[in-house]
């Protein structure tokens, strides 16, 4: 009996959700989110194309999944480096394995729902990627969220993330302004582990699955050796209500995110991305004050978005969807409760946002476009991004306490 109890306790400790009483549904907010989503969908389809509307709906789905599972990139890296908790990274490996499998099929066959030829995110590896991903790693730990984390927590009601988002936009504009300099720094060509190696997409798929399994095996050994505190389980409920009320298991969310990214690739012709929209929003804003952003190197080859509605930008409409999807999910859970921002947290949020915005422009993307989309596209730069962002996370752990931010501790019961 005692052995059974110990085994049951161990299984419960590995769960990412636990059945517990939930806060009441915030019905007015649910209705506001639903109505705004419907109106925005109708507006997008009316002024642009139906495909843009579909991408908005995909963005809604991303927001729902991210918030329901509290799926983190920032927290996963922080828990890994600080105490050796591997739950988040293991979820990443599952997500990447699902996406890589589907990307291999889509990119290898040219499959598309809309006729847009699919192209992955395969970019050069150079000083800009190394430095950009490193400072992004610092920034996401100070800003308490990555690109996707910033959007879904803004939608979920975390007040400080509004400052992170504003810093993110400012840093993205600054990175776009400086991109001409960084493109002159030493770099290797774009390297695809499928096409550049001669392995093809099937061989590249086998190679990456082997890497994912290798990393997973290492995480198992790390967890056994360090016995780190587990992630705090999220409250959920039972039955069908779990779909809209309770939290979702982390690994289930990983699979869904991988599938949604593949659907995005097959719909718009490119994987999921976030931060290019921030550069667009900020550039359009300062353009209203007479700044000639169209002559910047970043916009010189494609300045059309600067003169169009942001609803014509697929990344922007997906970002709007993420925010609204998270808002609706948080309202169903009764968790949309913005609070006060402490000065230290506010300062860290702005600094972190600027570092992430600047770093994302240099590194050809963020945790989504470079890490998730890059690796799923078989790009070497995605793996470099991961390594350097982890290095930036390590440094950031020494900086966070300066702003009154806590790091996980091995003696904690949960992290």
Automatic annotation (TrEMBL):
<feature type="transmembrane region" description="Helical">
    <location>
        <begin position="29"/>
        <end position="48"/>
    </location>
</feature>
<keyword id="KW-0812">Transmembrane</keyword>
<keyword id="KW-1003">Cell membrane</keyword>
<feature type="transmembrane region" description="Helical">
    <location>
        <begin position="161"/>
        <end position="182"/>
    </location>
</feature>
<feature type="transmembrane region" description="Helical">
    <location>
        <begin position="344"/>
        <end position="364"/>
    </location>
</feature>
<keyword id="KW-1133">Transmembrane helix</keyword>
<comment type="similarity">
    <text>Belongs to the TsuA/YedE (TC 9.B.102) family.</text>
</comment>
<keyword id="KW-0472">Membrane</keyword>
<feature type="transmembrane region" description="Helical">
    <location>
        <begin position="94"/>
        <end position="115"/>
    </location>
</feature>
<feature type="transmembrane region" description="Helical">
    <location>
        <begin position="243"/>
        <end position="267"/>
    </location>
</feature>
<protein>
    <submittedName>
        <fullName>Membrane protein</fullName>
    </submittedName>
</protein>
<feature type="transmembrane region" description="Helical">
    <location>
        <begin position="370"/>
        <end position="397"/>
    </location>
</feature>
<dbReference type="GO" id="GO:0005886">
    <property type="term" value="C:plasma membrane"/>
</dbReference>
<feature type="transmembrane region" description="Helical">
    <location>
        <begin position="121"/>
        <end position="140"/>
    </location>
</feature>
<keyword id="KW-0997">Cell inner membrane</keyword>
<feature type="transmembrane region" description="Helical">
    <location>
        <begin position="310"/>
        <end position="332"/>
    </location>
</feature>
<feature type="transmembrane region" description="Helical">
    <location>
        <begin position="202"/>
        <end position="223"/>
    </location>
</feature>
<keyword id="KW-0813">Transport</keyword>
<dbReference type="InterPro" id="IPR007272">
    <property type="entry name" value="Sulf_transp_TsuA/YedE"/>
</dbReference>
<feature type="transmembrane region" description="Helical">
    <location>
        <begin position="54"/>
        <end position="73"/>
    </location>
</feature>
<dbReference type="Pfam" id="PF04143">
    <property type="entry name" value="Sulf_transp"/>
</dbReference>
């Amino acid at each position: 009996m005692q052995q059974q109890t110990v085994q049951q306790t161990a299984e419960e400790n590995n769960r990412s959700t636990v059945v517990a009483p939930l806060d009441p549904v915030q019905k007015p907010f649910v209705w506001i989110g639903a109505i705004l989503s419907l109106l925005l969908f109708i507006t997008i389809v009316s002024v642009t194309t139906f495909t843009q509307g579909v991408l908005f709906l995909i963005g809604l789905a991303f927001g729902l999944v991210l918030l329901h599972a509290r799926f983190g990139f920032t927290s996963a890296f922080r828990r890994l480096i600080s105490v050796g908790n591997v739950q988040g990274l293991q979820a990443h490996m599952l997500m990447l394995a699902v996406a890589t499998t589907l990307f291999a099929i889509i990119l290898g066959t040219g499959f598309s729902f809309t006729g847009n030829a699919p192209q992955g995110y395969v970019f050069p590896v150079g000083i800009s990627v190394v430095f950009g991903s490193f400072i992004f790693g610092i920034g996401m730990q100070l800003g308490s969220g990555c690109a996707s984390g910033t959007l879904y927590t803004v939608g979920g009601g975390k007040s400080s993330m509004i400052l992170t988002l504003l810093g993110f936009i400012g840093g993205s504009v600054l990175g776009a302004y400086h991109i001409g300099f960084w493109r002159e720094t030493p770099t290797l060509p774009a390297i695809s582990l499928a096409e550049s190696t001669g392995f093809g997409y099937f061989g590249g798929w086998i190679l990456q699955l082997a890497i994912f399994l290798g990393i997973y095996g290492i995480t198992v050994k790390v967890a056994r050796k360090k016995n780190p505190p587990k992630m705090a389980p999220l409250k959920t409920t039972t039955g069908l209500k779990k779909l809209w009320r309770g939290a979702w298991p982390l690994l289930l969310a990983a699979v869904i995110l991988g599938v949604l990214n593949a659907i995005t690739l097959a719909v718009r012709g490119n994987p999921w991305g976030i931060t290019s929209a921030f550069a667009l929003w900020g550039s359009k804003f300062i353009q209203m004050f007479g700044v000639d952003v169209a002559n910047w190197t970043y916009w010189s080859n494609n300045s059309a978005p600067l003169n169009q509605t942001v609803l014509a930008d697929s990344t922007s409409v997906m970002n709007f969807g993420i925010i609204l999807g998270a808002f609706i999910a948080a309202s169903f859970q009764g968790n949309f409760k913005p609070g006060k921002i402490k000065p230290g947290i506010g300062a860290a949020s702005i600094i972190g946002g600027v570092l992430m915005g600047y770093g994302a422009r240099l590194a050809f993307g963020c945790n989504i476009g470079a890490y998730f989309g890059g690796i799923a596209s078989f790009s070497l730069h995605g793996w470099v991004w991961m390594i350097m962002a982890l290095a930036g996370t390590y440094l950031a752990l020494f900086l966070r306490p300066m702003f009154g931010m806590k790091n996980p501790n091995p003696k904690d019961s949960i992290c």
